[in-house]
Amino acid sequence: MEFSVKSGNPEKQRVDCVVVGVFENRKLSAAASRLDKASGGFITNLFRRGDLQGKKGQTLILHSVPDTLCARVLIVGCGPETEFNEKTYRDAAAAAAKVLNESGATEAVTYLTDLPLKERDEDGKGRQYAAAAKVLKESGATEAAAHLTDLPVQEHDVVWKVRQCVEATEDALYRFEQLKSRKDKVKRPLKHLIMSVPSKRELPAGEQAVKVGQAIAGGVSLAKDLGNLPGNICTPTYLAGQARALQKHHRKVHVEVLERADMEKLGMGALLSVARGSRQPPKLIVIHYRGAAKDKKPVALVGKGVTFDSGGISIKPGQAMDEMKFDMCGAASVLGALSACATLGLPLNVTGVIPATENLPDGDASKPGDIVTTLSGQTVEILNTDAEGRLILCDALTYTERFEPQAVVDLATLTGACVIALGSHAAGLLGNDAALTDALLDAGRAAGDRAWQLPLWDEYQEQLKSNFADMANIGGREAGTITAACFLSRFTKKFHWAHLDIAGVAWNSGANKGATGRPVALLTQYLLGVAGQD
Ligand code: BES
Ligand code: MN
Ligand code: ZN
User: Fold this and answer.
1) Which of 128, 258, 320, 525 is the most buried (most CB within 10 A)?
2) Is residue 482 pLDDT above 80, yes or no?
3) What is the number of other CB atoms lying within 10 angstroms of the CB of residue 312?
4) Residue 271 alpha carbon to ligand 1 centre in Å
């Protein structure tokens, strides 16, 4: 899909469709109001007659509206104006995209990007709060922080709205049909979405926002595709091939793949112990994006790549076990974020590390009680073979030390406990460096791909005690997400590290079953920040 920005009045657009928002209680947006005036009250009439209520998600296509130059007008309901927020904005853009795509219009101009939109501040820690807090901290003032919550909430600028509109549109139109023999093809799909900006002055910033939005949407789509592919296709070898494909497309991307023999030589006993149960060879995929000078320390992204998790000998119950093909969504996010980064040519170095394997119950598989030696030299008693994510990540994290990273972020569909704690709206975040975890929380807020922090206190470490090895790979029923992170923390002492548990956010279950591409947007936003481009 092509995206662009332009400024101009809605009644003057000679296109297939013009998109405008309306609110409940007959409240027209500025663009809807202009169309209404130009057409002699066409839209107010619809309200009066009850065709239009402006409820969230309502859409209405009008043909040949008098005294306009467009073939169609698409009206999108945005709910009560006072409740209009980031989510309703994205939902409105998504609803518009779906209707446009089926409407026969191939080119449309949308004025949703003109709607005034306040930054969401539910946790009382919006971005301006964070910015103000930083300034205050440096100023030495101690008492001002308490009054910060009285600050007026800021409006999102057009850059944010354009970017989110691109991302929401691509997200809404995404289909995974490569494995269906009959594809559900739309006859005349939407090809070009033009987003309105208030004046010519905003055009350059708007164009840059389109670029960023498209790069992120591309990364999200890649992550969705990889997540949605079944385990019999998306194997560790397939993931390695995807990394090599990235290298082919981008000059600054270089890939190395470590094979089982390499891992044996290095002593990656934990990763190898998981791979024992599978006939698919494991891979440790290393992807370097070199966008800055050699001596610039990289940010490392480490992604769990279990291409199918049966639980191993501690086998999972059958219900919804198919969803364990999504257990490589951390790996998919690494590839997605690197793709976005390379597309944007960001001036920084990023190293992706993906331990990839299946977790299956073979006669040679690891058993509960087995003890393995990790690459770090620490020993682990495997009390449950279904806690395999941390076993492959610990060796990948130790391996990452050699790149002397400025920061390491790992992404993993690590614990069912995280789904219970946070549901599917926020990723779990834990780490050993407050500057890093704060930066990730901020990036998630800015990108609309949020995370929520959990404590990583020493008290929880005790749950990993083993009578026979340095540690056990499980910590009991309590605080499962935290004890999993505690396990990883024992392998991340040499660098600034944060862990995102994406078990709840990486895919949807039920009727809309499918990968979400999260947290590619959060990661890319964070990397934009590191590159000084946020
Ligand atoms: N991949 C799973 C985590 C998971 C489960 C994600 C369900 C999303 C939905 C992970 O490998 C796992 O099995 N974790 C165990 C850990 C336990 C044995 C300590 C879990 O969460 O049950
Ligand atoms: Mn598991
Ligand atoms: Zn798993």
Assistant:
1) 525
2) yes
3) 27
4) 17
Closest listed residue to residue 504, CA positions, set 440, 425, 441: 425
Helices 86-103 and 158-173: crossing angle, nearest 10°? Answer: 50
Nearest residue (CA) to ligand 1, atom 13: 386
Q: Which ligand is nearest to the CA of 321?
A: 1
* pLDDT for the residue 132: 73
What residues does 285 pair with on adjacent strands? Answer: 257, 354
What residues contact residue 349 under an 8 Å CB cut-off, 6+ apart? 288, 289, 290, 291, 292, 296, 297, 298, 299
Side chain identity, residue 470: D
Predicted confidence at residue 168, as pLDDT, reads 98
- Residues with Cβ < 8 Å from 46, sequence gap 6 or more? 52, 60, 62, 75
CB distance 241 to 229 below 8 Å: no
How many other CB atoms are there within 10 angstroms of residue 512's CB atom? 8
Distance CA 460, CA 149 (A): 33
> Which residue's alpha carbon is at the smallest distance from atom 17 of ligand 1?
387
Q: What is the number of the ligand closest to the CA of 478?
A: 1
- How far is it, in rounded angstroms, from Cα 343 to Cα 114? 27
- Residue from 415, 418, 478 whose mutation best tests the ligand 1 pocket (most atoms within 8 A of CB): 415
The Cα–Cα gap between 524 and 528 comes to 6
* Listed range (131-140, 318-327, 429-438) with the worst mean pLDDT: 131-140
Distance 415 CA to ligand 1 centre (A): 4
Output the six-digit token pair for 87.
């989510």
- Give distance in angstroms: CA of 285 to centre of ligand 2: 20
Q: Find the Cα–Cα–Cα–Cα dihedral 317, 323, 443, 421, rounded to 10°.
A: -30
Q: What rounded mean pLDDT belongs to the chain?
A: 96
Question: Residues near ligand 1 with C-beta < 6 Å?
Answer: 309, 327, 384, 386-389, 413-417, 419, 474, 480, 503
Q: CA 529, CA 240: separation in Å to the nearest integer?
A: 28
Distance, CA 326 to ligand 2 centroid (Å)?
A: 11
Active site amino acids: 316, 390
What predicted TM-score, i.e. pTM, was given to this entire model? 0.96
The torsion angle over the Cα atoms of residues 349, 515, 206 and 2, rounded to 10 degrees, is 110
Which of the ligands is closest to the CA of residue 357?
Answer: 3
- Report the C-alpha gap between 509 and 424 in whole angstroms: 10
Going by CA atoms, what residue is nearest to atom 5 of ligand 1?
416
Q: Which atom of ligand 1 is nearest to the CA of 473?
A: 19
Question: Per residue in 55-76, pLDDT tens?
Answer: 999 999 999 999 999 999 999 9
CA of 390 to the centre of ligand 2 (A): 9
C-alpha to C-alpha distance for 21 and 328, rounded to whole angstroms:
39
